[in-house]
Automatic annotation (TrEMBL):
GO biological process: translation
Protein name: Mitochondrial ribosomal protein L55
A GO cellular component annotation in the UniProt record: mitochondrial large ribosomal subunit
GO molecular function, one term: structural constituent of ribosome
Length: 142
């Protein structure tokens, strides 16, 4: 199985799987080199799942410890409807402005009982109702 993918520096890498061994090659028009990774756990390379645009996935070794690397989708290969959906998802969402309602029906007389513990009710006695008076203490003569 031969696979092509872009490496860390953007180079095109060719990976060949032969009976559970990975042979990687860097190739261009002038030179090709092959190398075999002999170790199961290569130093400073982490096993990562690479997900291709078609949805298939393979295990690769990557320089950064990531769990999943997803290749980008080729936008030119998509249908017009899918292109519109992707572009709409990229656009910034409009923030909803929440206006606070100011409640100006505050009546401080409702809370007078909390400020002064001696006052049981906040209403004032009317003229018809006499104020309650405490009996005066009478001193006994000696």
């Amino acid at each position: 199985m031969v696979t092509w993918w872009r490496g860390v520096g953007g180079q095109l890498l060719n990976s060949v799987y032969v009976s559970r061994t990975l042979i990687q090659g860097r190739g261009n028009a002038w030179r090709a080199c092959l190398g075999k990774i002999c170790r199961q756990q290569y130093l400073r390379h982490y096993p990562v799942k690479l997900i291709r645009p078609d949805g298939s996935s393979i295990e690769i070794r990557y320089l950064e410890p990531r769990s999943v690397v997803q290749l980008p989708v080729d936008v030119n290969a998509l249908s017009e409807d899918e292109k519109r959906q992707r572009l709409a998802a990229r656009k910034p969402k409009a923030k909803k402005i929440v206006q606070e309602k100011i409640d100006d029906n505050f009546d401080p007389s409702e809370y007078m009982k909390f400020w002064n513990p001696n006052v049981q009710e906040s209403r004032e006695p009317t003229r018809e109702e006499p104020k309650e008076s405490k009996p005066k203490k009478v001193r006994k003569a000696k």
